[in-house]
Amino acid sequence: MTSADTLTFLACQIDIPPMTTAAERDAHLARSAAKVRAELAAADRRVDLVMLPELSSIDYARDTFSRLDEMAEPVDGASFQTWRAVAQEFGCHVSFGFARKGDGGPFISVGVVGPNGDLIGSYDKLHLAQYGASMEKEYFNRGDHLLVFEVNGFRLAPIICYDIRIPELSRTLAVDHGVEVILHCGAYYRDESFATWHPFATTRALENQVFFLSLNRAGQTYGNSLFCWPWMDETIAPVRFDNTAETFRLITMDRATLEAARRDYTFLKDRLEDYGAVGTHQD
Predict the structure, then answer these.
(1) Each residue of 254-281: b (16+ CB within 10 Å) or e?
(2) In what order do the strands lie in the sheet with 154-160?
(3) Radius of gyration of the chain, Cα coordinates, nearest whole angstrom
(4) pTM above 0.85, yes or no
(5) Which residues 6+ apart lie within 8 Å of 151 measured at CB?
(6) 179-216 pLDDT, tens per residue?
């Protein structure tokens, strides 16, 4: 296959330490970038995109969120500058999580930088979680736009953590925007909802017939990232990450796998155009 037929990720389930200052944030960014550089330098194949978890620049904690006046950044802030340098050095895209300040913010955001160092765009989390260990509505505002971009001819889009539990978002990306790869970054804490996360990831991949990378941060209360193929059965399994430890995985997907899934299992083609037009029958 040519490079235009494949897409290789470096998926980074990284540790994120407690922090309450911008200086601690920036030191963490430098350490994370050094780890990613080492993985890219040692890779046995070309890497097209590096992906990091939700809010990969800062800790997910009240102590941190209470300092968002200092910890949040403009879209071209410290996180962008850090990952821009990596993208330029290795000629790859980087998808990174950060807390974005700006009009209407702060937001839980994903930024995407291209191989030339330009910002491709940013996505602000549309659905804010407020249950279990989540407390996002107390500190953040929701976004108002999608982000779709292309790498090697594949159409990709980021979604963030709780977004996975609203099926209309993934379906809209796949059906209305032609997205073939969903980049789902999270900060999945081991609360009462943790056990339901993987079934959601598997379902979103299968029902929308997309590649689905569901990436968590590392740690004793996090971990267990998952990559799902557009079709899975007793012979094709998801790619599972370590339960808690930092894990860097190279994952290559190819267009033939996507096309075969959509050819053999015609879920998307068999949808009705308008379910509102279907009548009801009552005895």
Answers:
(1) ebebbeebbeeeeeeeeeeeeeeeeeee
(2) 149-151, 154-160, 181-185, 211-215, 226-228, 239-240
(3) 19
(4) yes
(5) 7, 48, 49, 93
(6) 999 999 999 999 999 999 999 999 999 999 999 999 99
